[in-house]
C-alpha cells in the first residue's frame, strides 16, 4: 500500500517536471560551435547552405586532420573554420605541400599559432583592449575590403565583442591584405605559395548564422570566399570540434568490426555473470561492534599526561622500581647494596654478561642520585634495562 | 541435467543442542549426492550473526552418489540465543555453467551456555583423582586429614610423611596413604557483575570467564562431595543460590549462570557483606571473582574483604591485564614509547602490590591471566582443601 503511494508521488513529480520542461521558453544555445549542421546563433548552418553556391561545386564535410585527409584529396580546396588554428608539424607540412602543389586553402581562426604561424611569419592579436581606443571605441566593428577593384567605403558592421582580432605581424613580401577593420588593421590576407595560395582570416565569427544572416553581411562572406577557385571543397571541422566519432580510448576497437563484436560480447557476458553471481548466497549479517578492550588506550592517555609534564625522573623511578621487583621475585636478590657484588651475583643468576649488568647498575645508580634527568638519560636507562630483559 | 533429478542432494547440519561459551564448538554439515555424475559444490552456511563472519564458504567435489561431511568450529564469546539460518549449497556440474541451489536445515535456535565443555573436561579429571598428574600443575598437599581413603603409588610431590612402609615393603615400591578430604564444605562462587568485569580479553568479557570458571569449580566441588553455591552481585545482589550437592544442583547452577545479565554498574561490597553475613551461617570457601586495576580500588573494598575473611575463607580472584603485556614486552624506541611502557609496567606492578596487600591481611588471592583462570581456581581450591583451611 505504502509502496504504491510512493510510486504515485514519484510519477506525479516526474509529470510536473516534464510539463515544466515542455512549457519553458526556448533557450538559445550560445556556444560557439561553427558546426555545419548547427542552427544555433554561432553554428554555421547558413554557411553550409551558402558555400556550394559560392564555389559552384560540392562541399564535403569531414572531421579529420589534413594529414589524415592527405590521400583522399587530390587538388581539392580545403576550408577550415576554428576558434584557434595551431596544427602539428606533420599537419603543417602536409598543408603547405598541398598548397605548393597547386591547391587553395581557406582558414579562418581567431588565433594562429604553432609551427603553421611560425612558417608563414604570422601573429594574431586582440584589438579589444589595445591602445587608447579601449574606452572610446564604438560597439560596432566595421570590416571593409582594401582591394582597389572594390569599394573600400562599403563597410560591413559586426559586434565588436565578437570581431576584434587582427594580424599584427605578417610577411609583407608574400602576403597580400584583403580586408581590414575600422582601425585599418588587416583581418584577412592571402599568401601565395608555389602553385597555390592560402587565404587566412582571423574573424571566424563572420561565418556564423547570426552574422551571416544580418543585413548585407553575406556579401562580405561570399566575396571573401570567392578568393577560392571554383572547385570541389573539403571542409574539415576537426580543428574546432575534434573527431566527432566516439572520443574514447576504445576508438580503435569500436572502428574495427570483429574487435567491436568481441568487445560487446565480453560486456554482455560480464553483465550476465554479474546478474547471476551478484545474487545473495546467504542472509544479511548485521554489524555488531565487539566489546573493545580499552586498557591500551588508557595506558596511552595516562602516558601522554605524564609525557606532557615531562618529569623524566619520575618515569625513570617507575622503571627502576618495576625492574627491581622483577629481579627480587625472579632471582631473590637483595637490592639495597647496588655494587660490584650485586652485579656479579645478578650476572651469574640471570645469565646476562657481567658487563651488561654492571653497565645497568651504573646507570641506575647515576639516575637515582640525580634530582632531575634529561630525555637522553631516560633513553639510555631504558636501553640498558631492555638489554638486560631481552637477554634474560 | 542438474534440474532433472528432483531430489539431487541431501544435506543436514549437525550440531549440539547447546554451545559452550569460550570454547571451540564443532559443527558438521553432512552432504549426500544422488546425482549420477560428479558435481562440485559451494556451501554457504548461515551461521548466527554474533560471529560476524561473512566468509564461511566451502568448496568441494562429490562423486556420483557419494557423501561427505564438512566440519568446522565456532567459538562464541557471549552467552545467549544464537540463530542459525539455513545451509545454502550451490551445485554445479563439471562444466560449471549454471548452478542449482539447495537449502536445508532451516532456522534453528541454539543457546550458548557457560563453558560446559571445560566443565566435563575437569570433571573427569577430578573424579579419577588425576588432576595432579595430567595437565594441571602438581600440588604439594601439605595438610593432613583424618580419614584414611586409600593406598596409592608415590608420585613426586606427595608428602613423604604419609609413606605406608608396610605397603611399600609388600609391593617393593613406594606407596603412600591417601586421606580423605574433608567433605560437605560449602564453596560459594561470588561473581562481581560490576563495571570492572566488562573488559574483554580474546573477545570474551571477564564476567564470562568468571562464569565459566564458577561453573567448573562448582562442578568439581560437588564431585568432591562439597556443596557448591552461587552469589552474584553488582550494585545490589543478583542471585543467591544456597550451597547444596543434591543431584539437581549442577543443572540449577548452570541455568542461573546462563541467565546472568548485567548493566556493569559499580559493585557494592557492603551489600555483599551484609547478605553473606545474614545468609551464610557455616564457614565457607568464598571464591570472589572480581578485578582490581589499582591499589586504590582495592583499598576502597578492603574493609569488607577483611570482614568476610574473618568469618569465612575468602579467595579474591582477579586478573592480569594480558593486553598490557604486549606493551611491556616490546622494546620502546622513542621517549613517548618509554613513557607508555613505564606506565604499562606500573600498572602490572600495581597488580603485584595488590597481591601483597591482600597477603599482608591474610586474604588468599589468585592473580591470573583470563585464559588460565579456571585451572588456577581449581588448583587453589584443591590446595586450600588439602591444607584444611576451610
Question: How are the SSEs ordered, and which strands pair?
Answer:
The complex is a heterodimer of chains A (392) and B (390).
Chain A: H1 2-23, H2 45-55, E1 59-62, H3 66-69, E2 77-85, H4 89-100, E3 104-112, H5 114-120, E4 123-126, H6 133-136, E5 140-145, E6 156-159, E7 165-169, E8 175-180, E9 186-193, E10 196-201, H7 209-212, H8 217-225, E11 233-236, H9 238-241, H10 251-255, H11 257-277, H12 295-309, H13 312-331, H14 340-350, H15 354-369, H16 375-391
Parallel strand pairs in A: 1-11, 2-3, 2-11, 3-10
Antiparallel strand pairs in A: 4-7, 5-6, 5-8, 8-9, 9-10
Helix pairs in contact in A: 13-16, 14-15, 15-16
Chain B: E1 9-14, E2 19-20, E3 25-33, E4 39-45, E5 57-62, E6 67-74, E7 80-84, E8 87-92, E9 99-104, E10 108-113, H1 116-127, E11 148-153, H2 165-171, E12 175-179, E13 186-192, E14 200-201, E15 204-205, H3 206-223, E16 227-233, E17 237-244, H4 249-258, H5 269-279, E18 284-289, H6 295-311, E19 313-319, H7 322-329, H8 335-360, E20 364-368, H9 373-386
Parallel strand pairs in B: 2-10, 13-16, 13-18, 18-19, 19-20
Antiparallel strand pairs in B: 1-3, 3-6, 4-5, 4-8, 7-10, 8-9, 11-12, 14-15, 16-17
Shape of chain A: elongated
**What structural category do the secondary elements of chain A indicate?**
alpha/beta
Q: Rg of chain B from C-alpha positions?
A: 26 Å
Helix tally of chain B equals: 9
Termini separation of chain B comes to 74 Å
Distance between the termini of chain A: 75 Å
CATH superfamily of the largest domain in chain B: von Willebrand factor, type A domain
Shape by Cα distribution of chain B: globular
**Which CATH architecture of the largest domain in chain B is right?**
3-Layer(aba) Sandwich
Task: Name the helicity range of chain B.
Answer: 25-40%
By CATH reckoning, the class of the largest domain in chain B would read: Alpha Beta
Number of strands of chain B: 20
Number of domains of chain A: 2
Instruction: Indicate the CATH architecture of the largest domain in chain A.
Output: 3-Layer(aba) Sandwich
Strands side by side in the biggest sheet of chain A? 1-11-2-3-10-9-8-5-6
